[in-house]
Amino acid sequence: MEGAAPAKEGSESVGALESEGATRPRPEDLVARAIAPVKAEYLRPPPSRSVAVDSGVEDGSIEKKSSSANVVVKEKKSRRQLKRERKQEQKSTRNICPEVAKSGNADACPYRGNCRFNHDMDAYLAEKPPDLEGTCPFVSAEEFCPYGITCRYASTHRQQTSLKLEVPATKSSEVNSLNKDLQKLLWKNKVSFPNADLQLKLLGLERGNGARANSGADHMKNHPENNIHLDDNKEMLCSLGAPTTCLENDCLDNGSISDDSRPLKKTKSQADKIDSSPKTKNFEESQDSCLQNGLEDVSPDNLYSSKDDLSLKPHAREIKLIDFRGKLYLAPLTTVGNLPFRRICKALGADITCGEMAMCTNLLQGQASEWALLRRHSSEDIFGVQICGAYPDTVARTVELIDRECEVDFIDINMGCPIDIVVNKQAGSALLTKPLRMKNIIQAASSTLSKPLTVKVRTGYFEGRNRIDSLVSDISNWGAGALTIHGRSRQQRYSKLADWDYIYECAKKAPESLQVLGNGDIFSYTDWIKHTLDCPKLSTCMIARGALIKPWIFTEIKEQRHWDISSGERFNILKDFVQSGLHHWGSDTKGVETTRHFLLEWLSYTYRYIPLGLLDVVPQRLNWRPPSYYGRDDLETLMASDSAADWIRISEMLLGKVPEGFTFTPKHKSNAYDSAENG
Fold first, then answer.
1. Is 145 annotated as catalytic?
2. CA 399, CA 360: separation in Å to the nearest integer?
3. What is the Cα–Cα distance from 528 to 540, expressed in whole angstroms?
4. Which is nearest to 471 in space by CA: 309, 281, 286, 299?
5. Which of the residue ranges 121-130, 209-218, 358-367 has the most confident prediction, judged by mean pLDDT?
6. What are the residue boundaries of the structural domains of the chain, listed by start?
7. Which CATH architecture group holds 329-563?
8. Angle at 194 between CA 193 and CA 196, to 5 degrees
9. pTM flag (> 0.90)
10. Pairing outcome for strands 382-388 and 410-415
């Protein structure tokens, strides 16, 4: 389905409208060219940029802090230098002992002289930055602030810092934290996975030599060149053995086998005999052939007789499934879809929330930063987590670990992530080219899990070669309870419009036992209602970027109205996010700056919202390119700026002045209308 014109062409059109008094086209013509039809009285010339823009960022959307005259490239520090700086930081007076800070008593630390932190409260208070305006988020929630004198709102604690530690603390509103004992066991590869190992054995995917799937630490040390980083995380490849012993010949990449291979030793079961038969190998060859020719695939399940396949049937039908019908589902959103943001969306009407995508190998290695993505707030009554992995054994063990240690209502497997660093490791949307591996992953995970399993995919890998419609029934038979389809291919990324006609086609082919959810370009309540009415078999629609730009979309859908929200109301939403962020990341200096960072990441999306009162045609479409315009007040104009310097100004209105030398560059592209990276 063809979408708007390429970004470069559209950008020239916007510039032409705003220069030298050009005749303004009709609103209908602007909409046809995917340009937002802002009323003429609000248009203004594009602001001049006084700062050089980083060449790695598109559309001039990012600029360094206004006080900087040049872009400074920092030199990469050596490990020795970093280690020396860490030791100096530990000796700094600002690195005060948490126990001393919490109690306000220098003798409260149980380690006394052996503590590696500073115990001099007077020296710390002398160097501590001034308190921020406002009230401590913990005090506002009638809780004891765990940050004590380090809290940037300590002046509002009153007598709290002098309270005795014996006072019972209120129950935490967040769950799914990583237990330190469990983390140590994961580090030492001493966690057992009996359910996953049993199911892998039944499926003929048992790993040999008694090694664990979470033995990624040694693997990373031996093969550092294979580490990948996603949100500072690493994804480990499942290795391969000789082609004759590997269950999936599609593990081959460009005719070569990875050196960091993890051998998969098959069990001598009936399932092994089936999988190693010439029929299976011929099927895999035909799958690759069909992929190259853009043809539909034959179902892998047709290769097995019902008698031989009894041991492979998952027990997912015995699991109580979540009814997604008619519910407002906030999509898992990397970086910005954090817990404080999900709290905002819940308050504005979201029914179902899902955590950010977590890499399976990082969870099995006990990485605290990855486990933080599984955190759940008490307000999230229907909550799931999304995981991403390339191989059945890794995914199955991760599923068992989450099922055992976390409070979640469902687990979603990402098979549609288009990011190169994930796809190159055979995870995410790379699985769309390997239906047998999709089958093995879903079967292994669903038969291990005691909760519903869902899958998220794209229409296909290559543009114009959609293939999910041929796999919909199979995905249900393999054990998935729900399937979310993003109406774009991996090659499209986020360019052009989502193909909802194809989503409808897939939903009509799905069996009654499989709920199908649509995803792509929902930006108003009319979009949501249209898609649900056009295809009654569609259970609901997942909302992603639309919620990033205007989280009140959930309120609009529930109340079935277009909300011309004021700048003050939008600013209050940002205030609520800051309060939730300080409660989640901490109210000390580190927590304040972490909250600021994620606030700025969010602001790199919200500026794209155009108030309804400024448009000639409503509602706004997600692919419209906004011209430069004035708001109805100064705050609205500031919120419409695409300059990072203005985003920083907004953060300073909420969190005080930024530290000296502070700069910000968004992690993700905030434009949905850039050209596709057809790799």
1. no
2. 9
3. 8
4. 299
5. 358-367
6. 79-166, 329-563
7. Alpha-Beta Barrel (3.20)
8. 70
9. no
10. parallel
